[in-house]
Design the sequence.
């Protein structure tokens, strides 16, 4: 009797999984929360079936079809969080399947994410930060590439490298010692850059600002805020020899209720209760052909509309200077400050840009080339090789 | 396809069970099993299913030939060697050719380039299974299978296809032609499948996530504490992953009337490394014992040499990389020492010391197994043996956040849960097992859906 019941219950469970997945309507709350559409049925081609991409995509599609998915996901998270990973509600480390990479086009669209490895996140209080792992081979690769740009464009352009540290580095020691030292990583990069490259060292200015409690990093996103980017901009101005615009001369606008990419990767209640806000600055004296600020956007994509392969901003700056920024999404918050300093601001995302930098450099006289990345990007081989490719 | 996936649980398994039990006779059941298994394999790997069919067809024909030339010893030998050549050749081309050429290039400074392949799933398992058929047929231990469908159903049988256990033909010969499933068997199968699912999805994946968290550091940045914590959690990850998969295989087998042999027997309570290898991946150990060690002469002729050959091959079987060979030889050396110098200790009654001795050597073994890059491996050991009294932030945080998991893992790797479970069934609730199954199933299903961390460890094998 007992065995009969056991078998019967198992068969009922299996039938229910079938009914939940294939018959009952999908649960829309998850996608609503993640700000995306339900996955659509993947394309069936001979190639996609044979190389297995159809199978992978179909399983992703299927996961979206499960009725009451949000409840299952909540239970799954509850079990893995509460029971296994969390000492209490405060601090834990978690692993996500795709590295946040550097790219969030701000619209929650996939495609520009760089799935590399397993990213590790540290979650505590109302904050999520990525844990940094230094990769010396990759960092050397980064400097080799930047050096080769300086070599190639020796007489035509000044080459600058700006590598941003992230929030975890400036937390107190208990957390800052988790993962590799970014200070050492940045020193390694600076030491390996050739004399033809100007290294824009933003470590101290960001560290000081953070120590003063200034809001230079988001708590729910891996990016810096526009204030963080502004400090970096001031350091760059010093190196490039122009007078930076003062923050007090800019008009600030605040967007409340911002929940960033890291939150989406690991929804955490304490952050939902206390979300980030975005402040963007506009210079009333600057006019551009395309706006720096995408006002349709209410997340990090507000800055230059997210990651685009190629953008050319023409400003009313009173000079003939051109800057080419080869970047990850950290540069997005940085670019709007340059409006008064450069006539041409050309922003390139190497992952999706298909032409060459050489072509652009040939068209202008006074050219600065600036690499803006966050330190994690210097460990992402695919990203780095894309920079190498577009030279 | 893997068992711990939404597609398997919500579509493949229910439909398979329905079709299987609607089939009137063993003949039709074998057809359903074969077709389902080939689909199971093809999902995501549609091309390499051809290698599987090739291997199965080849040995099926070799079997028929062995029968045809029953009285011709020369021909029979030739047929056996042909099968060995084809199976091991297939394995070599797909799994080892690249490694082999890399080493040739490294040693002789040559620059040979060959086509590289992605490893067909489960190839190390099914080539061994088909081989076992031809070898046993050669020695007359089994009857020749006349039904191509039945034979292919054996080779491709999805429960054990991609991660074992290595099921020898001889062990399921009877089942293949005639099998009966009772409610009790099916119920046992359900229990086994669900406990395996739980081991994989709840325990192994959780342990694996901790490993990922700790090894976010480069090996040279690991401290004494993070290095060892990482490999301890990895030891649990690989055990529960593998044993979970074997449990699911055995359980699914029971549901359709096959009795697979046990593959794990609480390996972490071993009293010696000799003992450990009687408890870990039993189907592999006995395969090597019966098809390599004993034919080479076993204990009787050049036993030491035989021992090292077997352990070299055991290492190599796990992957085409030097660390696996090192891992195999590491155990070969320990087993040799246990047979000689340490014999008095192994046979003594110093239980506690024996357990400590064994578990330390096993865990060190997993470190060798984990780091496929030799430079990383040596830098790991430099960190791991650099003792300091100062516990770093990451180690502390990991311990603080994962000690419940660690205790659960230790507890679950001993026979204690089974003992407790038995008591619960007997003395408390009659339906305790049913309730347990429902909880484990729902939690596992939820974890699969929340899709946090679900790696598949056997792609190398």
Sequence:
């Amino acid at each position: 009797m007992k065995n009969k019941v056991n078998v019967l219950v198992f068969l009922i469970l299996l039938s229910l999984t079938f009914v939940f997945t294939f018959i009952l309507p999908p649960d829309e709350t998850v996608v609503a929360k993640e700000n995306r559409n339900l996955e659509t049925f993947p394309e069936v081609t001979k190639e996609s079936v044979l190389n297995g991409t159809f199978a992978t995509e179909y399983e992703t599609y299927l996961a979206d079809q499960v009725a009451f998915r949000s409840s299952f996901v909540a239970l799954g998270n509850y079990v893995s969080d509460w029971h296994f990973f969390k000492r209490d509600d405060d601090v834990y480390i978690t692993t996500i399947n795709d590295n946040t990479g550097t790219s969030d086009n701000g619209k929650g669209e996939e495609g520009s994410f760089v799935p590399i490895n397993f990213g590790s996140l540290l979650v505590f209080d109302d904050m999520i930060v990525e844990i940094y792992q230094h990769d010396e081979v990759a960092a050397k690769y980064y400097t080799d590439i930047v050096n080769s740009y300086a070599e190639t464009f020796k007489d035509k352009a000044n080459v600058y490298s700006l590598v941003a540290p992230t929030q975890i580095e400036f937390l107190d020691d208990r957390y800052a010692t988790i993962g590799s030292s970014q200070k050492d990583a940045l020193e390694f990069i600076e030491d390996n850059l050739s004399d033809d490259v100007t290294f824009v060292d933003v470590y101290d200015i960001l560290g000081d600002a953070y120590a003063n409690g200034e809001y230079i990093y988001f708590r729910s996103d891996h990016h810096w805020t526009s204030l963080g980017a502004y400090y970096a901009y001031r350091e760059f101005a010093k190196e490039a020899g122009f007078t930076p615009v003062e923050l007090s001369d800019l008009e600030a606008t605040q967007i409340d209720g911002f929940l960033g990419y890291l939150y989406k990767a690991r929804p955490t209640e304490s952050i939902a209760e206390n979300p980030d806000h975005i402040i963007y600055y506009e210079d009333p004296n600057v006019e551009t052909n395309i706006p720096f600020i995408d006002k349709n956007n209410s997340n990090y994509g507000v800055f230059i509309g997210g990651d685009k392969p190629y953008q050319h901003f023409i400003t009313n700056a009173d000079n003939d200077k051109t800057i080419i920024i080869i970047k990850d999404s950290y540069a997005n918050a940085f670019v709007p400050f340059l409006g008064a300093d450069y006539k041409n601001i050309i922003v390139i995302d190497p992952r999706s840009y298909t032409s060459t930098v050489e072509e652009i450099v040939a068209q202008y006289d006074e050219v600065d080339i600036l690499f803006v990345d966050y330190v994690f990007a210097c460990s992402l081989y695919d990203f780095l090789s894309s920079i190498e490719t577009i030279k | 396809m893997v068992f711990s996936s939404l597609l398997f649980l919500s579509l493949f398994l229910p439909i398979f069970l329905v079709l299987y039990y609607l089939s009137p006779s063993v003949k039709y059941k074998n057809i359903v099993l074969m077709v389902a298994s080939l689909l199971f394999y093809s999902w995501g790997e549609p091309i390499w299913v051809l290698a599987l069919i090739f291997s199965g067809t080849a040995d099926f024909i070799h079997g028929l030939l062995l029968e045809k030339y029953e009285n011709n010893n020369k021909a029979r030998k030739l047929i056996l060697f042909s099968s060995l050549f084809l199976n091991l050749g297939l394995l070599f081309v797909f799994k080892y050719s690249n490694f082999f050429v890399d080493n040739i290039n490294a040693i002789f400074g040559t620059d040979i380039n060959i086509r590289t392949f992605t490893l067909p799933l489960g190839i190390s398992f099914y080539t061994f299974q088909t081989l076992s058929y031809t070898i046993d047929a050669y020695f007359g231990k089994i009857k020749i299978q006349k039904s191509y469908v039945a034979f292919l159903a054996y080779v491709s049988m999805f429960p054990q296809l991609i991660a074992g256990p290595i099921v020898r033909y001889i062990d399921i010969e009877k089942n293949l032609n005639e099998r009966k499933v009772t409610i009790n068997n099916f119920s046992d199968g359900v229990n086994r499948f669900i406990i395996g699912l739980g081991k994989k999805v709840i325990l192994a994946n959780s342990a694996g996530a901790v490993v990922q968290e700790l090894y976010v550091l480069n090996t040279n940045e690991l401290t004494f504490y993070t290095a060892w914590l990482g490999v301890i959690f990895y030891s649990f990850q690989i055990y529960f992953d593998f044993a979970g998969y074997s449990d699911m295989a055995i359980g699914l087998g029971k549901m359709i009337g096959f009795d697979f042999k046990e593959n794990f027997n609480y390996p972490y309570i071993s009293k010696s490394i000799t003992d450990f290898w009687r408890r870990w991946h039993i189907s592999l150990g006995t395969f090597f014992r019966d098809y390599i060690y004993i034919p080479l002469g076993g204990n009787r002729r050049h036993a030491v040499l035989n021992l090292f050959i077997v352990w070299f091959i055991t290492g190599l079987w796990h992957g085409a990389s030097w660390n696996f060979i090192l891992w195999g030889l590491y155990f070969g050396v320990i087993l040799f020492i246990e047979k000689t110098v340490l014999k008095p200790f192994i046979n003594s009654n110093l239980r506690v010391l024996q357990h400590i001795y064994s578990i330390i050597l096993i865990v060190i073994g997993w470190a060798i197994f984990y780091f496929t890059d030799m430079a990383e491996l040596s830098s790991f050991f430099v960190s791991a043996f650099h003792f300091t009294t100062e516990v770093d932030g990451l180690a502390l945080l990991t311990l603080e956040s994962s000690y419940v998991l660690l205790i659960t893992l230790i507890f679950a790797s001993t026979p204690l849960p089974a003992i407790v479970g038995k008591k619960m069934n007997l003395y408390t609730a009659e339906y305790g097992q049913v309730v347990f199954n429902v909880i484990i199933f729902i939690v596992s299903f939820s974890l699969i859906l929340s899709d946090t961390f679900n790696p598949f460890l056997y792609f190398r094998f």
Summary: The radius of gyration of chain A is 23 Å. Confidence is low (pLDDT under 50) at residues 85-89, 97-118 of chain A.
